[in-house]
Amino acid sequence: MSTDDTPLAGSVAEPPAPLSPLAAAGWWALDYLDAAKQQLRVLALPKAAKRWPTGDVGKPTILLLPGVYEHWSFMAPLGDELNRRGYRVRVVHGLGANLLGIFETAARIARALERIPTPTAGLVIVAHSKGGLVGKRILVGDADRRLGLHGVVAVATPFGGSRLARYLLDPGLREFLPDGATITELSGAASVNSQIVSVFGTFDPHVPEGSVLAGARNVQVPVAGHFRILSAPETREAVVAAVEALAPTAARANPS
């Protein structure tokens, strides 16, 4: 686990500045178009890339966690890049549309990880949106490091919740209410924030509060959108750098 609090290049202290209504509407449209394309990726990638389980045993294994209503294939661009850099990549099966509660999902994943051997170089979770909250909850429950978890790289995660959840009928999505029990409890678990790198763009239509997390490394990339950010080359570079920052000894000892 890295305890260096020095921010990564590009880190910021404040949420992104708001856009004009017209510009925001345009980014909403582009973002949902990208989400639709990523949903179709499920048909082309029914299984994880065959090469993903292979890589440098001296580097931590990567566990991909998608967001709500997302298949793991949403994160295929990040998985491909990390594997290309020598990381072994795993995905979680059985989440369906990832609609279970954050705490229940975290508990299920932690139990699954306990049933398999801990990777020699440890584990780093790379997550999108809700997946980042699930990852933080796993960190909270792994205080004794039994899972070998170095930390979480969270992309576009609503650590402070999203006020838009008030307008959603799905009770599972209302879990993201900023003053709800789930977000309140996770916000209070600040002791693990130093093990988190929060990566976010210049505008996120789903997370108007922004993804800045106090005590974490906060990295802004020059990309707008909640879904488009996943396939941007700047995000791939930021995620690789974040993984290396969380597990510096293993990554630098075994350069790709």
Provide a descriptive summary of the structure in words.
This protein is α/β, with parallel strands linked by helices and 256 residues long. Helix content is 34%, strand content 12%. The chain contains 7 helices and 6 strands. The chain has helices at 21-44, 76-84, 102-114, 130-141, 181-188, 233-246, 248-253; strands at residues 61-65, 89-91, 123-128, 149-155, 196-200, 217-220. It has a 6-stranded parallel beta sheet with strand order 2-1-3-4-5-6, with helices on both faces. Helix 2 packs across helix 6 (233-246) and helix 3 (102-114) packs across helix 4. It is globular. It starts with 20 loop residues before the first helix and ends with a helix. 44% of the residues are buried. The model is unreliable at 1-13 and 250-256 (pLDDT under 50).
